Each structure stands twice: as C-alpha cells, then as structure tokens.
UniProtKB/TrEMBL annotation:
Name of this chain's protein: Serine--tRNA ligase
Compartments, record wording: Cytoplasm
Residue(s) at site: Important for serine binding: 385
Entry text on domains: Consists of two distinct domains, a catalytic core and a N-terminal extension that is involved in tRNA binding.
Subunit-level organization: Homodimer. The tRNA molecule binds across the dimer.
Residues binding L-serine, per UniProt: 233-235, 263, 286, 383, 385
Binding site for ATP: 263-265, 279-282, 350-353
Job description of the protein: Catalyzes the attachment of serine to tRNA(Ser). Is also able to aminoacylate tRNA(Sec) with serine, to form the misacylated tRNA L-seryl-tRNA(Sec), which will be further converted into selenocysteinyl-tRNA(Sec).
GO MF annotations, alphabetized: ATP binding; serine-tRNA ligase activity
Class in the EC hierarchy, top level: ligase
Basic and acidic residues bias spans: 9-27
Species assigned in the record: Agrococcus casei LMG 22410
Length: 428
RNA sequence: GGAGACGUGCCGGAGCGGCCGAACGGACUUCACUGCUAAUGAAGGGUCUCGUGAAAACGGGACCGGGGGUUCAAAUCCCCCCGUCUCCGCCA
C-alpha cells in the first residue's frame, strides 16, 4: 500500500515511479480523485452522524411525554445516516482499490525499463574474469545427468507419485540440500538472525497482505476446503509475524525462516521442464528484516553481502544484478538478484533474490514502530534468499569433474561429514 | 467429531440498551514531597481517521475479537465467522 500522504503531497514522485516501471501513470490520478471523493463522503457521513449522536442523547434525557416526538424526528435522521454511511463505505472501498493498483515507489538509481534492462553490478567467482566465466575443459554434463549418476535425485518417481515438476531428493542429494541450508543457517545466525520454522499454510488476509494475491495469484496453491493458501516462500509467514503490531525497533528484527515452498508455476508450461531448476516444491531459508525506514537501504546491502558471502563459500561463479523497475514485484522498491553460472546452459540462473519493500508491505500489514517523536509509523521490511534447493543445480554443474565426480567446496565439507567429492553410484 | 464457557484499553478486571472510550486495581509518564532510592500525594494517557491551523493545538467521527443485523440509540440484544479454554469421543 502506498502512502496516502505522498499521494496527496507529492504525486509527481508516484507518477515518475509508475513511468519507470512502465505502469500506467493514470492510476495515480485515479487514486487522487478517489481519495478526494472518499473524503467528501466521509465528511458528509460524519456530520450527519454527529447530529444523530446529539439527538440520541436528547432522547435519553427526555421525559416520557417528550420522547415520542423526538424519536419520530430521529427516525428520519437514522435513515439518512445509514445512506451516508453506505456511500462513505463505497467511496472508501473505491479508494482502496484505486490505491492498490499503484506499486511501491521505486528507489532512485534503479534502472528503468523491463526485464532485459537490468544492470549488472558485479561478476564474481573462481573461474570468472571480467564479465566471462572460463569454460570447463571438457563437455559439461547438465545437472540432471549428474544428479542421476550420483543418485542425488529421482525425477521419474517424483513424477509417478506427484506429477511433473516433483522429485525425490535421495542420498547425497538430500544431504546436499541439508548441508546448504545448514551452512546458510549458521551464517544467518552469525549475522544476528533469529531462526524460525514457519507455517506453510496461511490465511487469506496474510496472503493478501503480503501482496501475493496480486500479480502472483495464479502461482499460489489454494485449499478451498479450509480456505488456506500454501506459501511460495516463508516471506509470507515472516511478514505476517508482526502484523497488527507496534514493534520495538531499537534493534532491527531479523528472522531466518526455514520452510518448504510451493509454487504452481502456472505460466511456465514447457519452460525448464528438465530437472530440479523449476519445481512445485522446494526448501528455502529466507532472511527477513524489520528495520527503521531510514536504515532500509543499508540493510538491503547487508543482505546482499550475506548472499554473496554464501555463494563465495560455495565457490560459485555468479553475477549480481540490479533488477529493472518494470521487473520488480509491486511491493519491492529495489531488488538485487544473484544468478549463478550454469555451464550446460551457458547462461546465468537466479539463485537468490533480495527485495527492499520499504514501508509498502508494512503499511498493508499494519506493522509499525514508534519513531523518535513517539509517533507510530510503518516499518520497512526486507527479504532475501539465504539458500534453496536450487543451489544444487549450480553446485553440481560448476564443480563437476571430467571423471564424473563432483568436488565439494571446502566450506561445505563440514556439513557433509568431511566429504570432499561426490562419487557416481553405478546402477546394477 | 459432540457439548459448553469465554474474548473489554499496556496488564488484570467491572460493565442495568441511553449518564461508557468505558468503573476499579496494577504498570507507565509528569509534577510535588524526600539528601538518594523506596514510600506517599496529585495529574495524565490508547489507536485510526476527517476537518481547521504554519505549528502547538482544537473540534468531529470510528474503534470493547472480526463481520452483519435489530433499535431513535448497542460493549450490552440477535446471527455468522475467527480465536482461547474445559469436558466427552476419536486418532496417534
């Protein structure tokens, strides 16, 4: 939810932001019109209501003889109040609908334009020089090939039991996932995050409040029998954690949520159908922070640094991109994605993402803090991936050896009982 | 799954349909008293929103789990939902 104060006082900032996102600028003017209509309607209702309150008080004080006349007069007023209230409610709803169409104000410096207009901030990794990654000196196998020979996952049986885009992680695959998650957990603990396992089924209000029923609505699994949604990320549950609260922000509140994530992948039929790159269910450790809005940008960089540290620990080649305005979710004011090199595809694929939602999400969820003047103001929220199942793809592909083994980066070895290489398991 | 009880402000806890934004405690803030702390006395409070105002303020409206309804008038009566608790049953 945008700030109505800004809507009234600095509509230009909103228009400029819409422009950079490639969203209709007219939404801003629609919302301004709806806001003033709503204020007029509320004003009418409230003055009638004030009259009604006064006349009801008179009835209460009146003697038995005076009452019938007063009540008759009040009856008429009651109907007017009812009508005015209905009108005010409608105007309020219309305003909210209009305001909801406006996305968060993009932070200065975010590249304008669509998906392809991202700006690369950095290329990094052991085989990276400049903006290119040195090729392997043998023909790379893809992660499916590698994973199957290592018996790290079982795609056929995943499909048999649950359908396409489902899989079993088996043996070393399962351990690798846990190793990544645990390494990330230790890192976030070190950085002051409180670990939490979150609910993966949430109520409609929470799904709505976090913004996932907007443009992502078709991505979300819904259980009609219980009126609950399956979360696509623990961001949902972590954002809802402090909903309707006034929290203490002397120190930022940082949580690391561990959960399974569910995504319908509705619009992506035929895309990434092979392997575990794009699946309906996976695990993720998600960072989430509540901070003073003044500190949001610094916190965003802090999250990005945690992410690059983790990728570095995995000895991966990757690039960090500043996502263009048009490719941001409606809640995000800025987003950094980190994409790892995938040799078999000769391209970069997203492993992490971190968004600064400024006060947009918190306003909708009613999460506030007391500022220096003791006023209640919405907090800023930020989220970012610490590790997901998908990292296995980059890990297998980038660390594959000519002999079919996969090297285990040093930092990950303690989480795998000291294992230094993953060995193929022959099928009898 | 069945039966019942309950949900009031930061906390506890009252509340005949009008005199209830809400008694009374406690906590908190300010002031007074005290050499300091404690104790004591006095005063003050929440949230959202609209309007006037440069602002401090002032005035209006709303908020007693949420949403509807009845009524001139609802914390109080009725309905639905959500949540908490107790008992019984069921499954582990």
């Amino acid at each position: 939810m945008i700030d109505t104060q800004i809507l009234r006082e600095q509509p230009e900032a909103l228009r400029a932001s819409q422009e950079r996102r490639g969203d209709p600028v007219s939404h801003v003017d629609d919302a301004i019109a709806a806001d003033s209509a709503r204020r007029t309607a509320i004003g009418e209702f409230e003055s009638l209501r004030a009259q009604q309150n006064a006349s009801a008080a008179q009835v209460g004080k009146a003697s038995k003889e005076e009452r019938p006349a007063l009540i008759a007069a009040a009856k008429e007023l009651a109907q007017q109040v009812k009508d005015a209230q209905a009108a005010a409610n409608d105007a309020e709803a219309a305003f909210e609908a209009a305001a909801a169409r406006i996305a968060n104000i993009v932070i200065d410096g975010v590249p304008a334009g669509g998906e392809e207009n991202f700006v690369t901030l950095e290329h990094r990794g052991p085989r990276t020089s400049g903006d290119t990654v040195a090729p392997l000196d043998f023909e790379p196998r893809d992660h499916v090939d590698l994973g199957e020979s290592l018996k790290a996952f079982d795609l056929a049986r995943g499909a048999k039991v649950s359908g396409t885009r489902f899989y079993y992680l088996t043996g070393i695959g399962m351990r690798l996932e846990l190793a990544l998650m645990n390494m990330a957990l230790d890192k976030t603990l070190d950085k002051g995050f409180t670990p939490v396992t979150t609910p993966t089924l949430v109520r409609p209000e929470i799904m709505q409040g976090t913004g996932f029923l907007g443009e992502h609505a078709s991505e979300v699994y819904y259980l009609p029998a219980d009126d609950l949604y399956l979360v696509g990320t623990s961001e949902v549950a972590l954002a809802g954690f402090h909903a309707d609260e006034i929290i203490d922000l002397e120190q930022p509140k940082r949580y690391a949520g561990w959960s399974t994530c569910y995504r319908r992948e509705a619009g992506s039929a035929g895309k990434d159908t092979r392997g575990i790159l794009r699946v309906h269910q996976f695990n993720k450790l998600e960072m989430f922070a509540y901070v003073n809005p003044a500190d949001a940008e610094a916190e965003h960089e802090r999250m990005r640094d945690i992410q690059t540290d983790l990728l570095d620990a995995c000895e991966l080649d990757y690039r960090v991109i500043d996502v263009a305005a048009g490719d941001l979710g409606s809640s995000a004011a800025r987003k950094f994605d980190i994409e790892a090199w995938v040799p078999s595809q000769g391209t970069y694929r997203e492993l992490t993402s971190t968004s600064n939602c400024t006060t947009f999400q918190a306003r909708r969820l009613k999460t506030r803090f007391k500022d220096e003047d003791g006023k209640n103001r919405p907090v800023a929220t930020l989220n970012g991936t610490a590790a997901t199942t998908r990292w296995i793809v980059a890990l297998l592909e980038q660390h594959q050896q000519a002999d079919g083994t996969v090297r285990v980066p040093e930092a990950l070895q303690p989480y795998l009982g000291g294992l230094t290489a993953l060995e193929p398991i022959p099928t009898p």
